[in-house]
Amino acid sequence: MSKQSGILNILKPPGMTSFDVVSYLKKLLKLKKCGHTGTLDPAASGVLPICINRGTKIITYLLEKEKEYIAKIKFGILTDTLDRAGEVVKKDDSWKQLTDQKIYKATEQFRGKIKQKPPIYSAVKVNGKRLYDYARKNQNVNIKKREVVIYDLEILDIKLPYLKLLIRCSKGTYIRSIARDLGIKLNTTAHMTNLIRTASDSFKLADTVQLDQIDLDSISNYLIPIDSPFDYRSLVVKDYAYKYAVNGTKLVEKNFKNWPDDLYLDQKLLIYCKRQFISISKVKEDDDHNKYIQALRVFNNGGS
Q1: For residue 51, how far is the Cα from the chain centroid?
Q2: Domain coordinates of the chain in residue numbers?
Q3: I need a labelling partner for 66 at 20 to 30 A (CA). Which of 166, 202, 266, 290 fits?
Q4: 6-65+202-222: which CATH architecture?
């Protein structure tokens, strides 16, 4: 059993669900706790950070981070799943009238804040049930549009009927929906034929590890420290206050080795003691406007 904690930057292969990867590692490494930081479609491949043991405590934070994808889209065919795994529901030849100029103009409308409707074959919950459950039972359901942010959308290649895009986006963005909606904007149909997640915040494709490289003996070579994804300011607690820190107790100026003059209200910090990462904390003020540090999430249990 691996008792180590941290993050594995896994290269998810196509054909496995994100949950399959978690289950595989949990069984292989005999882990008590294991979880991923954002679902990747079964047909997709690429970056899938997996948190193990105490590392699972940062999943909530990593889910909020931006993602980057390379997507290949095919015009002229629409499928029920919006990707190549689905059944064809519509075909047309309108894509033959497309030009590079029309495509560039259409993609401009997908940058910034946009509203998109999630695919019916997705894990989004409506009335307590996953959308794919409605789809599999041929049940009608009202799918509301959701706001997402497209930070960048770059055309990498146009070889009609195919289009390759690089997309950097917020959590909750469905690239399959972008493919569908782009087809609509161009008066044709479209679906996604390939998807690679090239980055999930600081986790990059070039740094991923394949599943067959990992075992109980080699895991130490690939584990990434729990605090590595965060760029918050660091403060070090004096040794005598170690127990206060690991218990999430309010910390004040005298508890720290250094106390910067420019701390500001609600600032997030990484707290360390005895060369250990203890917590993500926040700067707060009491009724007398004296600043103190309150833990938001403690990652170190004091060795117990």
Answers
A1: 12
A2: 6-65+202-222, 67-200, 233-298
A3: 266
A4: 2-Layer Sandwich (3.30)
